[in-house]
Amino acid sequence: MRLVLEGTVVNTVYGKNPEGDTIAVFTEHVPNGSFFRADKNQIHRMSNPNGERAVSFHVYSPPLEGARTYEEAVAASGSGAVPVMAD
């Protein structure tokens, strides 16, 4: 669970497309005072949309294990370039 204590956070959730690429599935703006969650094994990215101060509080239960980091890349698709997350 994550709680936004100040400012706004953008949470982008990723999933796999039929080719196996990790692509953005949806993005949500989480304003001050709101909660959001990331389910087990979910790939997500949090960002600060406007550069103003943003503070979020994270609670992990059970404790976080096996977390990985990714870098954004671009993969070609039939409809043009698609942002993906790469190991």
User: How does the major sheet shape up?
Assistant: 3 strands, antiparallel
**Strand-pairing-aware structural class:** mainly beta
Number of beta strands: 8
Along the chain, the helix and strand elements come as EEEEEEEE
Low-confidence stretches: 78-82
Q: Which helices and strands occur, and which strands form pairs?
A:
Layout: E1 2-6, E2 8-16, E3 22-31, E4 35-36, E5 43-47, E6 55-58, E7 71-77, E8 80-86
Antiparallel strand pairs: 1-4, 1-6, 2-3, 2-5, 7-8
Quick structural gist:
The protein is an all-beta fold and 87 residues long.
Structural summary, described in words:
With 87 residues, this protein is mainly beta. 0% of the residues lie in helices and 56% in strands. It has strands spanning 2-6, 8-16, 22-31, 35-36, 43-47, 55-58, 71-77, 80-86. The strands form three sheets. The protein has a three-stranded antiparallel β-sheet with strand order 4-1-6, with no helix packed on it. Strand 7 and strand 8 (80-86) form a beta hairpin. The radius of gyration is 14 Å and the shape is globular. The two termini are 24 Å apart.
